[in-house]
Design goal:
single chain; 157 residues; mainly alpha; oxidoreductase; Alkylhydroperoxidase; peroxiredoxin activity; CMD-like; AhpD-like
Length: 157
């Protein structure tokens, strides 16, 4: 399937993309670990089948120094030994926040063991934003494979 529209070629799409990029900057300025941001973004994008976002988050994570092995294992994180307890809590939170209307009290409590309120706020917003970005890219048939590291950072101005 070919992309249905290039949102970045429209005035409205460009304005919204700049705001999304600005929100991403706020997330990266938070105390939430950058690794967690990319792992959560990657897992939600896997669940939503968003090739564009998978491409972007894998490349951005590798550029930031993430071990490619860990990225390959995100889909099966429960069956691995490469993620910290905090990362596992964030991945469970991302999965429930992506697949369900809410998250269980158990998952919420587990996230609270590893992250403070500021980081939890960032996680909640991150999960909402990545799911919105995934849906826009999937609806418009955006393809993965050609993303260049840092491309979204250029939208922030």
């Amino acid at each position: 399937m070919e992309p249905r529209i290039n949102l970045f070629a429209t005035a409205t799409g460009t304005k919204l993309a700049k705001r999304f990029a600005g929100l991403n900057t706020v997330l990266h300025q938070s105390t939430l670990p950058k690794t967690v941001i990319e792992l959560v973004s990657l897992r939600a994008s896997q669940l939503n089948g968003c090739g564009f976002c998978l491409d972007m988050h894998v490349k951005e994570a590798i550029a930031a120094g993430e071990d490619p092995l860990r990225l390959h294992l995100v889909a099966g994180w429960r069956e691995t030994t490469v993620f910290t307890e905090a990362e596992q809590a964030a991945l469970a939170f991302a999965e429930e926040g992506t697949e369900n209307v809410s998250v269980s009290d158990e998952t919420w409590a587990n996230v609270g063991k590893h992250f403070d309120d500021e980081e939890i706020a960032a996680l909640v917003c991150l999960i909402g934003l990545i799911n919105a970005a995934n849906r826009m890219a999937v609806i418009t048939h955006q393809k993965g494979g050609s993303y260049e590291v840092g491309a979204m950072a250029g939208l922030e101005s």
